[in-house]
Write a structure and sequence with these properties.
Layout (H helix, E strand, L loop, with lengths): L1 H18 L21 H11 L3 E5 L5 H12 L4 E2 L3 H7 L5 E2 L10 E4 L3 E3 L4 E5 L14 E7 L3 E2 L2 H12 L7 E4 L4 E2 L7 E2 L6 E7 L4
Parallel strand pairs: 1-12, 2-3, 2-4, 4-7, 5-8, 7-12
Antiparallel strand pairs: 5-6, 6-9, 10-11
Length: 211
């Protein structure tokens, strides 16, 4: 028994000596935390979101938004668009049939909301419960359409959170969430399923003109 123990210890010692001295790797604290972005944050956001299955539509003016929303609904064959934000409804200019009745919420298939900020380096959308649309429209519908303008695009997530802090001061929303692409999961047998925990389709329409 003792000889077996000594044999094991001898092998461990030999392996340690053979491995040699382990050097200490010191991180380069001067290197940038994030990768460099393109000069155009709009294009950076569009590229990164579409890499993960989202879609970005660019408009020169906010008057083009209604046409784009109508085309999306026709393409997806979805006619139950739910929106509770009067500012967004005004931009649709009656071109798209919408609904905001609580009794019809469960039958919706498309949700239309705004956002707090767009994060270019992640291709993600920062939202909060302080928005008029609240929490539900970000997770319930099959298709989630988000309206934004270029001034809402931020380079990195930490800067987006700082801007959110500046906006709300000491009254931060109870929910702040970062949406990165359509909902997906591969928990079951490592098979990718879209729309399991939220919208299957995430479409962001960005206007150059602020609103």
């Amino acid at each position: 028994m003792e000889s077996a123990r000594n044999n094991i210890l001898a092998k461990l010692k030999a392996a340690q000596e053979k491995r040699g001295e382990i050097g200490e790797n010191i991180p380069d604290f001067t290197s940038p935390v994030y990768h460099a972005l393109n000069e155009s944050l709009v294009q950076e956001f569009k590229t990164n979101l579409e890499l993960i299955g989202g879609k970005v539509i660019l408009c020169e003016t906010k008057s083009e938004i209604a046409t784009q929303v109508k085309l999306i609904c026709e393409e997806k064959n979805q006619d139950k668009l739910f929106c509770t934000d009067p500012n967004l409804l005004k931009m649709l200019n009656g071109l798209v049939k919408t609904n905001s009745a609580e009794t019809d919420f469960l039958s919706l298939n498309t949700g239309l909301t705004g956002c707090e900020f767009l994060v270019a380096h992640l291709g993600s959308v920062l939202i909060s419960s302080a928005q008029i649309s609240g929490r539900r429209l970000n997770v319930f519908p099959e298709t989630h359409i988000i309206l934004a303008h270029e001034a809402q695009i931020v380079d990195y997530l930490d800067n987006a959170l700082e801007k959110l802090q500046e906006k709300y001061k000491n009254k931060l929303p109870s929910l702040i969430s970062n949406i990165t692409g359509p909902s997906r999961t591969a928990d079951i047998e490592k098979t990718l399923v879209m729309g399991m925990h939220g919208p299957k389709n995430l479409i962001v329409i960005i206007a150059c003109e602020p609103f």
